[in-house]
Automatic annotation (TrEMBL):
InterPro entries: Cro/C1-type_HTH, Lambda_DNA-bd_dom_sf. Residues 9-63 form the HTH cro/C1-type domain. This is Helix-turn-helix transcriptional regulator. It holds the Pfam family HTH_3.
Amino acid sequence: MSKLKLNRIKVVLVENNRTSKELANHLGKTVSTVSRWCTNEAQPCIETLYEVSKHLKVDIRGYWFRQEQIIKKRFLIRKAFFTFLYFLSI
């Protein structure tokens, strides 16, 4: 099953020609922590996200995938799962 992507930190870094190492140094976090945010293995707290938005000079709302995108992904995952179960029962 695919991982649900909640934030767009990696996309925003690329759009602003910044690196995760640079962001980690600015925030005083480890590179591995920022990497986990970029791969959506973990999510930063809202205070950290605010600091990221100030550093990159972007609106904090631009970091999150829209709810419609998340709902669509969940629907597609469930549909694939039930299709798989259906073919197992044939």
